[in-house]
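Project standup — Tuesday

K.O.: blocked on the structure for the chain from last sprint. Re-posting the sequence here as requested.
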Amino acid sequence: MMMPPPPPPPSKGAHFRLEQGETKIDIKCADDEPMKACSDIMMQLIDKINE
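H.V.: unblocked you, prediction finished:
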């Protein structure tokens, strides 16, 4: 009986998950994207939601 292939290695990209009440934000950054750029995008989304 053959074993299934192993799962892929975990991503190196940052991952942000925020929940507040019914609002949920789940952002997965690209492996080669700097965390600062990804977190800046997340902050822009939060600002838009809070408008």
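K.O.: great, moving the ticket to review. The chain is about 30% helix and 25% strand. The first strand starts at residue 15 and ends at 20.
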